[in-house]
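INTERNAL AUDIT FORM
Audit reference: QA-55
Scope: verify that the stored structure record matches its stored sequence.
Auditor: D.O.
Record contents follow.
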Amino acid sequence: MPDTITVEHLVVGALGCTCTIVADRAAGTAVVVDGGDEPERIIARLDALGVRATHLVHTHAHFDHIGCLGELRERTGAQGLLHPGDLPLYATLREQARWFGVTPPEIVKIDADLRDGDRLNAGAATLEVLHTPGHTPGSVSFALSSPERPTLLLTGDTLFRGAVGRWDIGGTSLEDIQASIRAKLFPFADETVVIPGHGPATTIGQEKRDNPFVGANAF
């Protein structure tokens, strides 16, 4: 059976957020992860793939990861999902944008919660929700699995190559983010590829060995 799953990563917005489109071309459906900006680019890729977004999901509620939810939802009819732990942060979306000198985005009602262990489907592809608090209280990562492909981790601003997300900007701690990474992400196989919310990809094995915050020689 041919593999009809497509996974595309777009770097969007002034802060270079990684937006991921998970599409099953045979089923004609897709899930968009972290549609933070440049909705026209995201819509253009969905159209080019011949798929319809059913869910717009977000690793957390900083404006660069969720800022164009309103326009994407209006254009696609997809449901917007966020972990409830980040609803208070989402309510500050316009203030966040002003702090960075960008046009404040629209705040729209979240359609449904993301909860640890939830599974969302784009045809034969599945995104499992992993609650990984630490960067924000409601931060989540997604484990993407599909036939004939190895698992891929979308970690938002929780785990980066050689770094972790900031933990000092609202109700979290270094211990929180370390615990989330070690309990929820490090159990995956060493060869598992990690796509962070910003910057280059890495692997679980590389971060176990070398990451100064959570690796073998962490301070």
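Auditor finding: record pair retrieved intact. The longest helix spans residues 174-185.
Action required: none
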